[in-house]
Amino acid sequence: MSRTTDILLTALAPAVWGSTYLVTTEALPAGYPVTVAALRALPAGLLLLALTRCLPPRAWLGRVFLLGGFNFALFWTLLFVAAYRLPGGVAATLGALQAMMVIFMARGWLGTPVRAGAVAAAAAGVTGVALLLIGPEAALDPVGVAAGLGGAASMAAGTVLSRKWQPPVSALSFTAWQLTAGGLILLPLALLAEPPLPPLSPINLAGLAWLGLIGAAATYAIWFRGVARIEPGAVSMLGMMSPVTAVLLGWVVLGQALSPVQMLGAIIVLGAVWAGQRANRPPASDLAARPGATRAETA
């Protein structure tokens, strides 16, 4: 499979994640962020474990729980804290900084060179997200800003370490391990920090099913597959597709206005994502020299 096909397939994951805001606000009870995160992660992880019938070896348990913490437990918790304490546009813009963080984390943990074009593309993407989402009423809350930055750093660390630590199993099994670990971390936090959920309506159950089966199990399997095949800086830029999808769904489904500035922001984000794929692509000579280079990478 070619690199372009890998990129397009991986981009489906953050595009689907853009529906999370719509589903959360329209189909789930408000005020249960950690509980919802646990219900999104743990059932999906257990289902994938049942399907793959592949448990992590004992030597991998520490790494699996660390990755599950970074990619799910810590990231989703801080994401909700930022969303509750900041305007949505500010929270999403802080989250978009993870693409920049990945570039420098990959330099330290993977030895990936820092390319000026990649940094410029990440900066342009953050600017586009800001134009797309930040309105004149935007305000900064110190705790919310810290949560937003922490969530971006958590996702960045999870992305880079998921590339660094590749177990000899399928992406589906690797996703099952991480979702289950993240859900096991979140479950006691939800029981301690939040009251019990009210009786769930059919719409609530449908929302949880979407977030768990599609927004977690299916899309994260696609995402981790992409993390294993595409350069960390390139795959992190694809995460900026999420706010674009969220705004488009708000416009199409909820009838929210889409201003010329937001349209400009969406165009900048899409251009930055495209530029980020080109800027982060290693030279063909480097790929050919690597013993583990795959056909997909050298295509």
Automatic annotation (TrEMBL):
Point out the coiled-coil segments of this chain. Answer: none
Organism, as annotated: Sedimentitalea arenosa
Name assigned to this protein: EamA family transporter
Q: How does it sit in the membrane?
A: Multi-pass membrane protein
Q: Which residues cross the membrane?
A: 32-52, 64-84, 90-110, 117-136, 142-162, 174-193, 205-223, 235-254, 260-276
Q: Which UniProt keywords apply?
A: Membrane, Transmembrane, Transmembrane helix
Superkingdom to which the source organism belongs: Bacteria
The entry's localization annotation reads: Membrane
The family classification in the record reads: Belongs to the EamA transporter family.
Q: Give residue ranges for domain EamA.
A: 7-133, 144-274
> Can you list the GO cellular component terms from the UniProt entry?
membrane
Q: What is its main location?
A: membrane
Looking up SUPFAM superfamilies in the UniProt record yields: Multidrug resistance efflux transporter EmrE (SSF103481)
Q: Which InterPro entries match?
A: AA-Vitamin_Transporters (IPR050638), EamA_dom (IPR000620), EmrE-like (IPR037185)
